[in-house]
Structure of Annexin:
Amino acid sequence: MATLTVPDHFSSNEDAEALRKACKGWGTDEKAIISILGHRNAAQRKQIRLAYEQSYQEDLLKRLESELSGDFEKAVYRWILDPADRDAVLAHVAIKKSGCNYNVIIEIATILSPEDLFAVRKAYQVRYKHSLEEDLAAHTTGDIRKLLVALVTAYRYDGGEINAKLAKSEADILHDAIKDKAFNHDEIIRILSTRSKTQLMATFNHYRDDHKISISKTLLEEGADDFQKALHVVIRCLNDHKKYFEKVLRNAIRRLGTDEDALTRVIVTRAERDLKDIKEVYYKKNSVPLEHAVAKDTSGDYKDFLLTLLGKE
């Protein structure tokens, strides 16, 4: 369930005009920008950008970039992009970071539907003139590279069919490889990158039932290396991405100095999808509404914009 609220009446031309007024003259009217863009879905935002360009021969994104600053500007910029284009930008930023932020790549590759992941790969190629897998391969090495490239190039079956016999046999394959500490075994990467999510759920359930421990717990033993941690993130994202995102938010807010990148990423990418469900998981886990935690940890227009996307006026 989405947290985004949109009005019954919508006019892209009226919104474009209002945004133009908000950006003209002395000082920017940030509240007007939030009240408009914070209540428009992806299709409406696309229409507003088109209407703005037709009316004023100017890209609304570039105008907003020049008018806004800091975390607020970054959040608005990412919000206004088409979802596939936004994920392409997030992937590119993650790849270019020192050491590659593989969690972001894993989120995109495992949580999106096969069609949405394919759209991100197309958007990435249009924007950066390289393929996503090409850039990933150039900025990662070894087992991490093998895993991430396999995940982003996969096109999983997206239906509900389950092969129970296969689930049991692949649960045993995973268990044997992990027991032998062969975490980089080709079979682990093959299973996690090619099987459908419903099939993997059955496999993970067999693993837990047959071996009396969840697969994700076995991967986080003391001294786990980066590759084990990456496998753990893959399994968490495939198994229950709402619980995974709750933990990302919790870590972003609780750390010494807020992780605004992570906070923005989750709220902006999930507001039109399932942020209401993630908020419920957050409340159950922390006994504090997510809006309260965000309000306490952020300030100014950035805070107001995030709270708007969270559905709080």
Notes: The CA atoms of residues 75 and 264 lie 6 Å apart. The chain has four domains: 12-68, 83-153, 164-239, 241-309. The chain has a mean pLDDT of 95. The chain has 20 helices and no strands.
